[in-house]
Amino acid sequence: METWRLVATGAFLLGGLVMILVGMAQARDRKGARRSDVRRALLVGAVTVAVVAVLIAYVLPSVLAWGVVAATAIAVVFVTMWD
Length: 83
Known about the structure:
Blueprint: H1 3-29, H2 35-58, H3 62-81
Helix pairs in contact: 1-2, 1-3
């Protein structure tokens, strides 16, 4: 496996973890939220991140893979700086 794929996958997994945690926090903060809502947010986020990480690691061309990583980084900055 090429080095750029490892770096891109690692960067995406780091950003994906942050996005999962943000999604779980938002699910928890909703009115009438239950623990199952937070668990569902974790499950959906983890499966989505895992599938995209596998695609980045093995399938996607470099331009598209790095585009996904950049979009994730922009989303993390936007969501974490939102007030």
